[in-house]
């Protein structure tokens, strides 16, 4: 089939199914599928709500004509069998980060406004997951109409633990064969062919006194904290007002300090304001700490004084990636101590071991300890490979652009697979209005027109991948 004829058929298909796709996105957004290990059980290893979203995703896949499989509640997949058992795969996820604060719209009741869909997970990654399924449905319909199977099996992998540890895909690849080529609709166009190393750790203070009764901020470790609260023993009348900080009585000689920052994904902290950092500065400036707490807060001030790691002695860059980033994600008070998480995305010119050495030494100087929670090394794929060029070429045809594959600081499923990349649906060349939030932010949303174009790009791209030799 000629390219133009294929594109016309695909366009008509997308217009025809779009309202059904929107309803399916809405049904998934309604599920608050945040990891809940406290209520995990056999068959629901990440908690009941993530499993509910996984089950709903597989139900949609089955309804669309795919062979759906639940893999012990850890992950799922849905196949359109081909002539070969070799697979071309797409992978998206149905778990989400917590909603956080600052929403104008109900995060779990999808809003349709001015050509945009709004709700937690609309962009990351429930909307793109639905696109994945409807891309496969296009080919399922063609097979049903012609009886002619695709050259390769088309597999839609349904992730369920992407936002925390990606334990789902690690388990999957221990138990199932690698696809020949995999792309993940969970990032930006034109195509991500490399990702920085991913490093996360927890700084734990020494035993604290009772000046700071409680310190709590942030929602997840891989996002800049948009809000943070500290309860301190102080006289309200002695505390000055401060920009972005509410000072309120909390009863019994206590004062509640609430900081309002600007959240962002940990890999893209530019323009953000970390609410935890705001409180750290306020506590230090006003002497709201004991000597022991001051040592911890002074270390905290180094964490929050930069987002490039320079104040921690870990700044780094190279020719392949953008400079290192490092942010403080969450702070909690636990068992009489403070626990501060940090998240760094690092290039090839530094290692996780070196970050641990330098930050660990600073922690020790301030009476704290450092525990490494995750260290994923950087990776990159060949941008000139046939598969990557098929995808990027399709994107450029649809947009009239001449863009090239690029690298990022975020971590996507793509880094786990032997060939492929992260492929849209967000397009920085077509920015959203200010009232629409990005992934991990309040009022998360995305353009319906961009979604529809992305779906067309995915279908045509899969068609071209099916023509390659693997």
Characteristic key phrases:
Alpha-Beta Plaits; 4-stranded antiparallel beta sheet; 6-stranded mixed beta sheet; single chain; 470 residues; 2 domains; Aminopeptidase; elongated; 27% strand; alpha+beta
Q: What's the multimeric state? A: single chain
Query: Average pLDDT, to the nearest integer?
Result: 96
**CATH-assigned fold name of the largest domain:** Aminopeptidase
CATH top level label of the largest domain? Alpha Beta
Output the strand order for the largest sheet: 1-2-6-3-7-22
Described by strand count, sense and barrel closure, the largest sheet is: 6 strands, mixed
Terminal Cα span: 21 Å
**What's the β-strand tally?**
24
Total domain modules: 2
Question: What does the radius of gyration come to?
Answer: 23 Å
**Would you identify the CATH architecture of the largest domain?**
3-Layer(aba) Sandwich
Helix/strand-derived category reads alpha+beta
pLDDT < 50 runs, ≥5 residues: none
Within CATH, the superfamily of the largest domain carries the name: Zn peptidases
* Dominant shape: elongated
Write up what this structure looks like:
There is one protein chain. This protein has 470 residues and is α+β, with helices and mostly antiparallel strands. The protein folds into two domains: 3-196 and 379-465, Zn peptidases (Aminopeptidase); 197-376, 2-Layer Sandwich (Alpha-Beta Plaits). It is 31% helix and 27% strand. It is built from nine helices and 24 strands. The strands form seven sheets. A six-stranded mixed beta sheet has the order 1-2-6-3-7-22.
């Amino acid at each position: 089939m000629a390219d133009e004829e294929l594109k016309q058929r695909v366009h008509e298909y997308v217009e025809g199914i779009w309202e059904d796709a929107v309803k399916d996105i809405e049904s998934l957004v309604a599920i608050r599928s945040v990891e809940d290990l406290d209520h995990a059980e056999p068959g629901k290893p990440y908690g009941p709500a993530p499993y509910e979203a996984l089950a709903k995703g597989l139900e949609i896949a089955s309804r669309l004509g795919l062979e759906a499989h639940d893999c012990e509640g850890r992950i799922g997949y849905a196949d359109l069998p081909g002539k070969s058992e070799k697979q071309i795969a797409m992978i998206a996820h149905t778990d989400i980060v917590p909603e956080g604060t600052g929403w104008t719209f109900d995060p779990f009741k999808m809003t349709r406004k001015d050509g945009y869909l709004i709700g937690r997970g609309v962009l990351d990654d429930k909307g793109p997951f639905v696109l994945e399924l409807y891309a496969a449905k296009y080919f399922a319909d063609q097979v049903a109409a012609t009886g002619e199977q695709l050259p390769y099996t088309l597999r839609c992998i349904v992730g369920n633990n992407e936002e925390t540890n990606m334990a789902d895909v690690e388990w999957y690849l221990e138990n199932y064969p690698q696809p020949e080529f995999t792309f993940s609709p969970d990032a930006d166009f034109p195509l991500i062919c490399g990702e920085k190393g991913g490093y996360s750790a927890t700084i734990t203070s020494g035993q604290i006194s009772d000046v700071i009764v409680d310190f709590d901020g942030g929602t997840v470790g891989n996002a800049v904290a948009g809000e943070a609260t500290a309860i301190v023993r102080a006289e309200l009348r002695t505390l000055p007002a401060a920009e972005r900080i509410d000072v309120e009585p909390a009863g019994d000689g206590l004062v509640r300090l609430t900081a309002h920052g600007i959240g962002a994904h940990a890999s893209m902290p530019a323009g953000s304001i970390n609410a935890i950092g705001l409180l750290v500065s306020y506590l230090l400036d006003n002497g709201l700490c004991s000597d022991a707490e001051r040592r911890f807060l002074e270390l905290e001030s180094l964490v929050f004084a930069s987002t490039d790691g320079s104040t921690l002695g870990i700044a780094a860059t190279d020719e392949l990636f953008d400079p290192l980033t490092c942010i403080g994600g969450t702070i909690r008070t636990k068992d009489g101590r403070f626990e501060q998480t940090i998240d760094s995305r690092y290039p090839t010119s530094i290692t996780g071991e070196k970050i641990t050495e330098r930050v660990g030494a600073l922690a020790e100087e301030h009476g704290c300890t450092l525990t490494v929670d995750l260290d994923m090394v950087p990776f990159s794929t060949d941008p000139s490979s046939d598969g990557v060029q098929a995808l990027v070429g399709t994107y450029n045809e649809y947009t009239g652009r001449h863009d090239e594959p690029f690298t990022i600081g975020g971590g996507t499923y793509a880094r786990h697979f032997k060939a492929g990349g992260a492929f849209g649906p967000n397009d920085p060349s077509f920015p959203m209005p200010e009232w629409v939030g990005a992934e991990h932010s309040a009022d998360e949303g995305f353009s319906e027109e961009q979604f529809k174009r992305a779906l067309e790009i995915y279908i045509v791209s899969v068609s071209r991948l099916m023509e390659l030799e693997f």
